[in-house]
Predict the 3D structure of the following.
Amino acid sequence: MNWIIVKKVPLDTDLSAVVGYLRERGISHQVYEEKGEQVLAVTNPHIVAPLLQMLDEAAQGTVSFSPTTHAPLQQRSLAAPSLLAQIKSAPVTGWLILMSILGGCLVEFDKAQRFIPWFSFQKFTETEFGALYFSPVVDSLLAGEVWRLITPAFLHFGFFHVLFNSMWIWDLGRRLEYLLGRKYYFIFFVATAIFSNVAQYLWSGSGLFGGMSGVVYALVGFILVSHRLVPHQLTAVAPGILVFMLIWLVICATGAIDHFVGGSVANAAHVGGLVAGMLFALCSVAMLKKRIRD
């Protein structure tokens, strides 16, 4: 039986009404202590979002877990949760998508490139001949501009670039956020974004690049490895999807896609992200085995 963490609350929080509500409806659940907190976990991933929404509403006093007050949770979960409820259940994923959209808007509307240089991997200026001069990375890092290691992941070049990456972040990212928890998933994003951005810079040298694709392929790499070592229903992605992503990586590496996007695909970021995700999964095996209780 695989357990999915729904919410962590302080030890002094009374969860008896919640436990009674779930028990009456035959919903598999457990409450246990971990690092000074109570952890509520369930086995059905489709219940996570509506249950989390109900917990938030109960905390605000707008609903209660009285059997006479609400329809059964199973009945509520038959209908697809609202978009807001889904975002609430995976806030890190929602934040990544929002930042990607804002990064795409920045690239689209900052034609004078007054603000983009603050978020690119290297600070750059335009010379009098129209060429771009990129400052050394070391100079920026020594000046404390360490955010440059991460922020290129938010820069997107065109509507389809944002759409493609956001779709995969929404699908695969939420799986990992449910599985790993918000804090660990955020660490995953930071680590793999840095790894993929550095890989792209080391491969291509100075240049303007960006996108969440490296993190997307980190998700693919993590799922490939973790599901083989610690199988879980949240990482049980259809093999065809993973095969498609790997084939797409190879097609991009051939340079064929460059002719259609008006630029160069950050292939090194893709490969770097894939490797980073695999390494992260290997380092997370012990933690995953602890989270997935039999």
Remarks:
- The first strand starts at residue 4 and ends at 10.
